[in-house]
Design brief:
The chain is of the alpha/beta class. It folds into two domains: 9-76 and 246-304, 3-Layer(aba) Sandwich (Rossmann fold); 84-189, Glutamyl-tRNA Synthetase, Domain 3 (Glutamyl-tRNA Synthetase, domain 3, Alpha-Beta Complex), CATH 3.90.800.10. Helix content is 35%, strand content 14%. It has ten helices and ten strands. It has helices at residues 22-37, 58-68, 84-96, 107-116, 152-159, 179-182, 197-207, 223-232, 268-278, 288-303, and strands at 9-12, 41-46, 78-79, 100-103, 147-150, 165-169, 173-177, 187-189, 212-216, 239-243. The strands form three sheets. A five-stranded parallel β-sheet has the order 3-2-1-9-10. A hairpin with a 3-residue loop joins β6 and β7 (173-177). α1 packs across α10 (288-303), α5 crosses α8 and α7 (197-207) packs across α8. The termini are close together.
Length: 310
């Protein structure tokens, strides 16, 4: 698998569906520390591509929260809502290669296709796309196109990618997934006209030269499909480190969707210290700046390879 060079570039890429909460600060702190420990560049990208879910002013609010916590990006932030032309160009490349196709299916259609095959539904598990609109299966059959999908099987076959796809996480260790069986042909452009997360994140990581992705463990399952898309677009594969999740009293992942409260930043040191506890970093000493310096040293000792990435 292609890999990145030795010049470190990392990023924190929040979705502005609300302000940062305790869980998202853990990911922000970890990605910042990893960049600083490697002597690299740390970027912030506001992933506001899912416009219907974005909260007005949340992107600016997130940037202000990060600054209050001493986490300032080294370059001006990117906003995905301004990147539509780049996503359109990437989709066209995939279409031209025969690796993307239009899809007419609704969620009900997908459910009906699996039911017709006698495959029962598993709770909380998203069904893979059954390939109904693949060109070799008859395509749209006169129905209007709703979305665009990546033809995962064709990409894997044409590029000779291994099945299952194997990748390494710096914290979780060796990982593997049969992307075609587990996920199927995932969406690149949604039925409502907005760009899908998978395409936008891969295109932007490539455009920004991201070498290392440090993010929450809940996103680890996205990694293999993003690697397939990276390969299809001729982009290098970053290194990955997925951080522990912060969970609520009910054991569920802390998220905006389940009512996680925005960070209270009247005491920034307390907020950042709580994130450091999740990352198993030393107790705080002094102010935010001195604590961050101490945590960089601890992070470097634990997570920085003795040899540079290659």
């Amino acid at each position: 698998m292609g890999h990145v060079g030795a010049v470190y570039r990392g990023r924190f890429a929040p979705s502005p569906t609300g302000l940062l909460h305790a869980g998202s600060l853990v990911a922000a702190l970890a990605s910042w520390l990893d960049a600083r420990a490697h002597g690299g560049t740390w970027l912030v990208r506001i992933e506001d591509v899912d416009r219907p879910r974005c909260v007005p002013g949340a992107g600016e609010g997130i940037l202000a929260q990060l600054a209050t916590c001493g986490l300032t990006p080294d370059e001006p932030p990117w906003w995905q809502s301004q990147r539509g032309d780049a996503y359109a160009a990437a989709l066209q490349r995939l279409v031209d290669a025969g690796w993307a196709y239009p899809c007419a299916c609704t969620r009900q259609d997908i459910e009906a296709a699996w039911t017709a095959r006698g495959v029962p539904r598993t709770r909380h598990v998203e069904r893979p796309y059954p390939g109904t609109c693949r060109p070799e299966a008859g395509g749209l059959r006169g129905r209007p196109a709703r979305a665009w999908r990546l033809h995962v099987g064709r990409v894997i076959a044409d590029l000779g990618l291994p099945v299952p796809l194997v990748w390494h996480d710096r914290r979780l260790g060796p990982q593997a997934q049969d992307v075609e069986t587990a996920v199927g042909d995932f969406v690149l452009k949604r039925a409502d006209g907005w760009w899908a997360y998978q395409l936008a994140v891969v295109v932007d990581d490539g455009a920004q030269g991201i070498t290392d992705i440090v993010r929450g463990e809940d996103l680890a399952d996205n990694t293999p499909r993003q690697i397939v898309l990276q390969r299809a677009l001729g982009l290098p594969t970053p290194r990955y480190l997925h951080t522990p999740l912060v969970r609520g009293d009910d054991g569920e992942k802390l998220s905006k969707g389940n009512g996680a409260r925005p960070l209270a930043l009247d005491d920034p040191l307390a907020a950042v210290a709580a994130a450091a506890v999740v990352l198993d970093l030393p107790p705080t000493e002094g102010d935010v700046a001195s604590s961050l310096r101490r945590w960089i040293t601890a992070w470097r000792a634990r997570w920085v390879d003795p040899a540079p990435p290659h």
